Amino acid sequence: MLRFLTAGESHGPAEIAILEGLPAGLAIDKDVIQQELDKRRGGAGRGGRGAIEKDQVKILSGVRFGKTLGSPIALIVDNLDFANWAQKMQIEPFESIGADSFHPSGGTALHPPLTTPRPGHADLAGGLKYGFEDIRNVLERASARETIMRVAISAICKKFLLEFNIEIASHTIQIGQIKLSNKNVQFEDIKNVFNKNPEIRCIDPNISSSMKNEILAATKSKNTLGGVVEIIAHHVPVGLGSYVHYDRKIDGRISQSLMSIPSVKAVEIGEGITNASLYGSQVHDDIYYKSQGPTLKKYYRKTNKAGGIEGGVTNGEDIIIRVYHKPISTLGNPKDTVDIATKKPAKALIERSDICVVPRAGVISEAMLAFVLADEMLRKFGGDNIVETKRNFKGYIKALK
Ligand SMILES: Cc1cc2nc3c(=O)[nH]c(=O)nc-3n(C[C@H](O)[C@H](O)[C@H](O)COP(=O)(O)O)c2cc1C
What we know:
Blueprint: E1 3-7, E2 14-20, H1 30-41, H2 49-52, E3 57-61, E4 63-64, E5 67-68, E6 73-78, E7 102-103, E8 107-108, H3 123-130, H4 136-142, H5 147-162, E9 167-175, E10 178-179, H6 187-191, H7 193-196, H8 205-220, E11 227-234, H9 250-259, E12 264-269, H10 272-275, H11 280-283, E13 287-292, E14 296-301, E15 309-310, E16 313-314, E17 319-325, E18 336-338, E19 345-347, H12 358-381, H13 386-400
Antiparallel strand pairs: 1-2, 2-6, 3-6, 4-5, 7-8, 9-10, 9-11, 11-17, 12-17, 13-14, 15-16, 18-19
Helix pairs in contact: 1-5, 1-12, 5-12, 9-12
The structure holds flavin mononucleotide.
């Protein structure tokens, strides 16, 4: 139903995206998207590029007088640093720079090819796959800069979800060895964490300062750190996804979309990891029913170890997911590698790089979850205009009661 495509190289002129499939009539403006982009930009653990990236989004199509038209929505974010990369990233063949600057192994004398792949990055596998002698051809697209457009299009998906009172928020629960131990976290606290603590985005101030120290120590020792983000989707209706086919199970769809975020190496739904070592009687959430007057009648659970999904279908409880990031692979003290031009031992290349992406990665996970949920809402409720989608939604909720 809903689909998007992004394009753009990390140091190219711009990142762009097209989102297709949203109904007409959804109120949207640039600021809604910009707010999300600003969340992705900051945070502790950013490298030098954070200071350059003052990303501003432009809406090019699909919106008129502040409302979606039902046609594809095209977005662009210009690269404000492109002037410094125009030659390195030029579209025209490099012979056009001048014959004297031609480099035999696929670059220019001014910009020699990168030939020392970083362990943990796409550099070597990507280069071999596409037949490149210059690793820049890989890293420009493998870079997580592309996620800027996922955040941009998903800001519109979040706005769509809000029409149904569905909200998504995230917070940092682990950086390196430092973990948030408080498991009793309220959704409102998570929602406000960015405003209260934009650097680390952990709800506990003491743990936050330990996390920050951990990042500073890694920076000092030219190392990098991973960690864990928790995302929660609130007020999700029962019945999104399906148990009938492998590719319609919503837990599978959500996991795939989150695993596609660079540096994510594991996704946990509910208490999935802990549950694996417990008895069934300790794990499964008992079901209750409450009926208070004609409007409030519903099934509910007192616990949510399933994380809001059973059998590939949302069960009406909050969706709770943990996303595990590895430490990023561009290291100030580079690891051993092989020079692909000479086949001799070498040290891996160093590109301007972050130290820890976890604080600002939460908004990217929120984006992917928002996209999947918006798509599932449209699969279930359809509608060419938001009024129609809402009417269908209301009818379903009424029928449930
Ligand atoms: C927001 C964000 C920023 C990132 N920044 C960097 C970076 O500056 N340097 C780096 O080496 N990796 C960075 N990464 C991770 C790499 O893009 C990623 O490790 C690489 O593409 C290999 O993919 P994989 O880790 O998913 O296997 C970042 C990831 C995210 C989510």
